[in-house]
Amino acid sequence: MHKIIKKEALTPEIKLYVVDAPLIATKVRPGQFVVLRLHEQGERIPLTVADFDRDEGTITLVVAEIGKTTKEMGTLDEGDGILDVVGPLGKATHIENYGTVACVGGGIGIAPVFPIARALKAAGNRVVSIIGARCKDILILEDWMKGASSELHVTTDDGSYGIHGFVTQQMEKLIGEGYKFDFAVGIGPVPMMKAFAGVTRRHNIKSIVSLNPIMIDGTGMCGVCRVEVDGKTRFACVDGPEFDAHLVDYDLLLSRQTTYLKEEKQALERFEKCGGDCGKHE
Amino acid sequence: MSENKPGRKGSEPRQEMPRQDPMVRRTNFDEVALGYSAEQAVAEAQRCLRCKKPFCVSGCPVEIDIPGFVTAIAEGDFDGAARKLKEKNALPAVCGRVCPQEDQCEKYCVLGKKWEPLAIGRLERFAADWEAKQGRMSVPETAPPTGRKVGVVGSGPAGLTVAADLALLGHEVTIFEALHAPGGVLVYGIPEFRLPKSIVAREVEFIEKLGVKVEVDFVVGATRTIGELMNEEGYDAIFIGTGAGLPYFMNIPGENLNGVYSANEFLTRSNLMKAFRFPEYDTPVKVGKTVAVVGGGNVAMDSVRTAMRLGAENVYCVYRRSRAEMPAREEEIENALEEGMILKELHNPVRIIDDGNGWVKQIECIKMKLGEPDASGRRRPVPIEGSEFTIDVDVVVIAIGQGPNPLVPSTTEGLETNKWGNIMADAETGLTSLEGVYAGGDIVTGAATVILAMGAGRKAARAIHEYLMSKGQA
After folding, report:
1. Predicted TM-score of the model (pTM)
2. Of A71, A139, B127, B283, which alpha carbon lies 20 to 30 A from A61's?
């Protein structure tokens, strides 16, 4: 059982959790993820680690409440426990001094970008971060990203805050203004990562994305997380989750993410009908 | 050979195993084989010739005293039978269910020469279940603590056996399991209807009673490496029993479509995650109306029978050789056929066709014929040109085998593997290329059976004990 030490609502539907997980906290590196299961009837879901405190033995998870499990997690309070948290899984981000790097985060993807940006900055890079959300109210971790970056650009799709437009448009604009990026990281919704790959391909920038397919064990045993990279099937859990942005088949990833849309809807409706008790007490 | 008159004793027919009716059982996840009654068990046990030289024992990878426990059953001493089994086998209720006895102990039974061999597996199961039903759990006495620490990676059959053997010898044993429940393939792979999970839980509880600590959610190679366990956490020896946890695919077009599962995923969803109870349990699984399972081994049979129980109406088994070459146990093939499996022998999938929306629609197969024997001794399947045709399916399950999971080898410097990625280990001791590091089971041999993994665990435990004792007092 892993105790929730701190819980904070970043927006009404995005929550931050600081979770007691000393074994993981001492080992985890930027880019890695954990798999968690809330309770005995729960499913296993992967979550990228947004931050960690090796001394306190905690990891920080930022969770968007989009499905049954993430919404149910939102009903937990500080002091409550999560039954299983396993990790750190996946390969860590390769960190080196590239020169100038772009760290691009869209929506909930800002959370996993944060530790990577911080590590790249610590390695001596000039970190130009571009983060964005649909609108001002759902933009997260702006302060964190300010601290982790040499320069921060913020966009909103509707123009309610910062620059009006998408993160990828802002990146294109910066390149047009003469920014030279030696490396770029892009994490966010699949369409955003696909657009990000388009920008970096056009400008011949070496770049990576972090993929978020469905997972179960997270150790390469089940193969549900298979993605196609450079025409080859790879397991995102052990071969990734980060891959060369230019080589990923984003359409396949998007399609595979929808496999259980019907069941996810059914589970969510059932959960909302019984006010959060159905999963635990049957 | 026998003190009894030959030609009489043992000639009685083998006691039939009561089973659920096929048409009933294909709709539920309850155990198919129901087990002997006490009367049946005694009657069957009395068929044993009590050979002075019991060939059956030489067919058992863990050297169970078969005449010993069978005699106890024949005499009505069921507790004694259970104790006898546990002297050599920490998992009798599991082995009594899933061992291929027809290729092991029962193959060598003298009765089988003239009549039917003694039903050793069913008797093993009976004794173990009988003890469980009484709510008793006999725990053998363990040797005084040696002060030596052993880490066991993986809680499948090999790991559980090593752990039990070493705990009995007085070592401090911790099992590290990557998943949230111990048992390895016994919980994620083998379905409830063949091996109820409550039985696995009970066998694990027995091992814990011997003093073994089980750490779930601990991925060796990620949470801690073997080097860290030995150098920083004080483990004197490590046993790697991580199994065949890497699903193979066929590398044919369409394999990444929605609705295509590896058998590992399909079975894990149903068994470990209890998708058959969705939405009460959160994890879903798809079957639709028609399922094609590709492969002819035990995992394929488990997938076929799971698909039926999840509600599929038509379940095909697509196998590239003929039924005679199918590696699954005959009993499992028969069970599946009785339940309605449609066997497409001598068929090989060449591609999976989509519905235009990213989902499986059809599987295209080519007909095969048998050619000359290959390296495995089985006749090589050869495609018949121009014989391609399609089957409409909603779901495809690929059950063509599993390889070694690279997580441990890739994070353990100096640990040698062969070209398939299996860990190189001495056949007699399980010793790897690293001092103090042993391995056994599927991670060494490639996908095989529960009992072979247990046999490897038994040998490794002996070698680890000798190694630890040679290091002197801790």
Report:
1. 0.93
2. B283
Q: How many CB pairs under 8 A join A and B?
A: 117
Assess whether the previous peptide bond of B279 is cis (omega < 30° from 0).
yes
3-state secondary structure of B190: coil
User: Does B6 sit behind a cis peptide bond, omega within 30 degrees of 0 on the bond before it?
Assistant: no
Q: Which CATH class is domain A2-89?
A: mainly beta
Pick the residue of A19, A69, A219 with the most B CBs within 10 A to test the interface with B by mutation.
A219
Cβ(B429)–Cβ(B244) under 8 Å?
Answer: no
Going by pLDDT thresholds of 50, 70 and 90, the confidence category of residue B2 is: very low
Nearest CA-CA partner of A58 in A89, A92, A34, A24: A24
With tokens 């130009």, the residue in question is: A128
Min Cα distance B37 → chain A (Å) is 33
Beta bridge partners of A60: A18, A51
- pLDDT, position B450: 86
Domain locations along chain A: 2-89, 100-257
Fold of A100-257: Rossmann fold (3.40.50)
- Interface contact A69-B223, CB threshold 8 A: no
Find the CB nearest A267 among B264, B268, B282. Answer: B282
* Closest-CA residue to B247 (of B255, B235, B257, B238): B255
Contact B32, B25 (CB under 8 A): yes
Token digits of residue B120: 């050793």
Cis, bond preceding A241 (omega within 30 deg of 0): yes
Q: How many Å apart are CA B433 and CA B168, to the nearest integer?
A: 26
* Helix, strand or coil, per DSSP, at residue B383: strand
Backbone phi and psi for residue B115, each to the nearest 5 degrees, phi listed first: -120, -145
Cβ contacts of B103-107, under 8 Å, gap ≥ 24 = B104/B59, B104/B60, B104/B61, B104/B451, B105/B56, B105/B57, B105/B59, B105/B60, B105/B64, B105/B66, B106/B56, B106/B59, B107/B59
Share of chain B above pLDDT 90, in %: 82
Instruction: Say if CB B438 and CB B425 are below 8 A apart.
Output: yes
**What is the number of other CB atoms lying within 10 angstroms of the CB of residue B225?**
18
With a cut of 70, say whether residue B7 has pLDDT above it.
no
Local confidence band at A281 (pLDDT 50, 70, 90 cut-offs): very low
Average pLDDT, chain B: 93
Residue A135: which residues within 8 A CB-CB, separation 6 or more? A156, A157, A158, A160, A161
What per-residue confidence (pLDDT) applies to B349?
A: 97
Q: Is the pLDDT of residue B3 over 50?
A: no
Are A104 and A188 contacting, i.e. CB atoms less than 8 angstroms apart?
yes
Per the CB < 8 A criterion, the answer to whether B149 and B236 are in contact is: yes
Q: How far apart are CA B271 and CA B181, in angstroms?
A: 11
Average confidence (pLDDT) over A138-145: 97
| Per-residue pLDDT at B279 exceeds 50 | yes
Indicate the SS3 state at residue B457.
helix
Cβ–Cβ below 8 Å for B224 and A23:
yes
Q: Which of B150, B168, B157 is nearest to B241 (CA)?
A: B157
Tell whether the model's pLDDT for residue A280 goes beyond 60: no
AA letter at B326? M
pLDDT confidence of residue A276: 55
In order of B159, B299, B410, B428, the CA distances from B420 in angstroms are 22, 20, 13, 21
Identify residue B52 by its one-letter amino acid code: K
Neighbouring residues of A178: CB distance < 8 A, sequence distance ≥ 6: none
Find the mean pLDDT for residues B158-176: 96
| Chain A residue whose CA is closest to B267 | A222
Provide the pLDDT for residue A226.
Answer: 96
The pLDDT score that the predictor gives to residue B140 is 83
- Residues A21-60 pLDDT 10s: 999 999 999 999 999 999 999 999 999 999 999 999 999 9
Distance from the B446 Cα atom to the nearest Cα atom in chain A, whole angstroms: 15
